[in-house]
Please model this.
Amino acid sequence: MHSVAKRAATVAIGAAVAFGASSAAWAWWTVEGEATATGSTGSIKPIEVGSASVQGLYPGAEKDLRVEIYNPNPFPVVIDKARAVARTEADRCDRDAISVEIPERPVRVEPGRKSYTLEDAVRMRADVGGCQGADFEVTIRYSGQNAA
Model:
C-alpha cells in the first residue's frame, strides 16, 4: 500500500508541476503595459492673394483682373467666400463709380502659386465723368478652409 501512496503522491506532484508550468507559460505569454508618444499638430497658414494692376479703365468699360494666389500649406485649401472692394482717393470720383465682381463659386487652391484671370471683373459705371486720371485700389477679402 505504501507504493500506491507513493505513486499517488508522484502523480499529484507531477500534476501540480505540469499545472504550474502551464500557468507560468500562460503568464509568460501575456503582457500588459502602457506607452506614451509625443507629437504636435500643424496649423493652417494663411494664403496670400494679390492682383495685377488694371490699366485704361474708362466710363462703361470692363477690364480683366488677374489674381495671384500663393498657398504655403502642404495641402489644398478651398476659398469659399470672397469679396472685393474698389476705392479711390480722388475727390471728383464717386465712391461707387468702380466695382469689382468676384465669382461666388468656391475655388480650390493647390499648394504653391497659381494665377487666375477674372474676366471683365473690374467695371466703371457708364455715367461717371469725374474719374479721369484717378488711381484706385482693389482690396480682396476672403475666407477658406482645409480641402484635404
